[in-house]
Here is the input.
Amino acid sequence: RAPFAGPETGFRTNSGDPVRGETMSKKMKSHKGAKKRFKVTGSGKVTRRSKNLNHFLEKKSSRRKRRLTGDFEVSPADAPRIKKLLSS
Here is the structure.
């Protein structure tokens, strides 16, 4: 065991203690880009923001901009892949 890792120092090694048969695997991390873009509702649906509402807003009509506000549901085909990215 390395001198800088162990219970006496408060740091843990990634391999665990092979003498006691312990193995530690790395934790799954959520995808930070997906975390910023998507949200899972209480019922399990995945929501997203609308596109076309970031720039060049002067040329878009007020009606179009109003229609693009709010959250939209992700297509059912893409939802499982996004949920996998968000699971940690």
